[in-house]
Design goal:
The protein is α+β, with helices and mostly antiparallel strands. The chain contains five helices and twelve strands. It folds into two domains: about 200 residues, BirA Bifunctional Protein, domain 2 (2-Layer Sandwich), CATH 3.30.930; about 45 residues, Roll (SH3 type barrels). About 20% of the residues lie in helices and about 30% in strands. It is globular and about 50 Å long. The chain starts with 5 loop residues before the first strand and ends with a strand.
Length: about 260
């Protein structure tokens, strides 16, 4: 298999998710990747807008056709995309291992001085499943690479960060970041198709573990202390206020707040 089978770069596009979805529906082989300097209609989870100034972030979507992957493990595609980008980002920005973390279910974050978390990137996924496996999936990821803090949106400035700021305001090469990401994604995906998932690495990268969390599930809100994640289902595991263990599937989450 050629990796990737198709990759195209756009100066501006409405959504890389749409582009890759249409490629897969039209018969394009996996793994197909669309990269954009700017998106006019980019969206995160739950339809939230994802906007970044041109060139300020690395914005891309990855299309898979992993029919050997069981539907219950489809979430692992977003997990390997997140882990590949985390490792590539730390290297490209010259950061120490463990500077970038994962915040369940879909964020890349860094530690804030006040003990909180700053969002550096986000992941969104969609899939088509059959009775025996995942027919297709499109995983979108956006990471704040070259976004200078002085240009952060005022309303989000206290909750976000970028690789440029973490690197001491050093410019980030988006093309090198993309190459590093692809180099790390290919072996992770090949392993996944062979039935191997780095559950230990994914679990260890979670910054939610050991922290107080509040999870919004539609009309219901549950709180407790996160104790880990389930590598089989992808669920967040936490101890509720009454001491009982609670497992929350990522697909049901509207928002997860960490305290």
């Amino acid at each position: 298999m050629t990796f990737p089978s198709r990759i195209e770069r756009f100066r501006a596009v409405d959504s890389t998710q749409r582009v890759v979805r249409e490629w897969l529906e039209g018969g394009t082989d996996e793994v197909a990747i669309a990269v954009a300097d700017y998106q006019t209609a980019g969206q995160g989870r739950q339809g939230r807008d994802w906007m970044a100034p041109p060139g300020a972030g690395l914005l891309l979507s990855v299309g898979f056709k992993p029919e050997v992957l069981a539907p219950r493990h489809g979430w692992r595609l977003a997990a390997i995309v997140s882990l590949a980008m985390r490792d590539a980002a730390e290297e490209q920005a010259g950061l120490q291992d463990g500077t970038i973390w994962l915040k369940w279910p879909n964020d890349l974050v860094s530690d804030a001085q006040d003990g909180g978390l700053h969002k550096v990137g986000g992941v969104v996924g969609e899939s088509v499943t059959g009775s025996t496996g995942v027919k297709s999936a499109v995983i979108g990821i956006g990471i704040n690479s070259n976004w200078a803090a002085v240009n952060f949106p005022w309303a989000l400035s206290r909750s976000m960060n970028s690789l440029r700021e973490l690197a001491g305001k050093r410019p980030i090469d988006n093309e090198a970041l993309l190459e590093g990401f692809l180099a790390r994604l290919e072996p992770r995906y090949e392993a996944l198709k062979q039935g191997t998932f780095d559950a230990a690495g994914w679990s260890a990268a979670q910054r939610t573990t050991g922290r107080r969390v509040t999870v919004e599930l539609g009309d219901e809100t549950v709180s407790g202390t996160a104790t880990g994640v389930d590598p089989e289902s992808g669920a967040l595991v936490f101890r509720g206020e009454d001491g009982a263990e609670v497992r929350v599937d990522s697909g049901a989450v509207i928002r997860c707040r960490v305290r």
